[in-house]
Amino acid sequence: MGMAEIVRHRFAESIDVKQRASEQLAVEIAQAVAEIVCSLRDGNKLMLCGNGGSAADAQHIAAEFVGRFQMERQPVAAIALTTNTSTITAIGNDYGYDDVFKRQVQAFGQDGDIFIGISTSGNSECVVRAAQAAREKGVFAISLTGQSGGRLADCADLAIRVPSDKTPRIQETHITIGHIICELVESELFAHAAV
Fold first, then answer.
1. Which domain holds residue 107?
2. Residue 133, strand partner residues
3. Does residue 194 belong to any structural domain of this protein?
């Protein structure tokens, strides 16, 4: 297979996964939006985390909320737990890497907040522990995973499982889901603002 054909094949794979996700996950994504909107309207916040590419996705989504997505509007309270290197390295050194997000959820999480844990496998220990800590604090936990869901889906209040077991295709769909959530939350909270 030539390079151009590989390119076409990868686009086709990505489109297929996103098409199946649109058919299978619309209800779960809408539920996530409703939970986030309700939480933010009550003055609560959003906390996000993940490892590697999923850390980048957590930061990307948080940035869309704090800055803006498509509307000029007030900022939305969203924190990526992946960004404070001093906190991450201190916790990693003193407690172990598995607790880098858990300790932050314990510090910042309050009843009524929303937690979004992103893991393609659903088995990233530090993300699983953070979700468990979130639920212990009365924080609504949402997981974004691949099709198996892993342990993260089991400890979340709402599991959004992308129908694929290929990491790149899952990640591509996660950011699409993140953008859809941002758009709908922004629209619900700031319907009066111009796009």
1. 3-189
2. none
3. no
| Dihedral sign, Cα of residue 49, residue 55, residue 162, residue 174 | positive
Residue 172 has pLDDT above 70, yes or no: yes
Element (H, E) at 47: strand 46-50
CA distances (Å), origin 54, targets 146, 168, 174? 12, 11, 9
CATH assignment of the domain containing 159: 3.40.50.10490
User: What is the distance between the alpha carbons of residues 104 and 87, in angstroms, rounded to a whole number?
Assistant: 8
Q: Is 123 a domain residue?
A: yes
Phi-psi label, residue 45: left if phi above 0, alpha if psi -120 to 50, beta otherwise: beta
For the entire predicted model, the pTM comes to 0.95
Does residue 195 fall inside a structural domain? no
**pLDDT tens track for 23-47:** 999 999 999 999 999 999 999 999 9
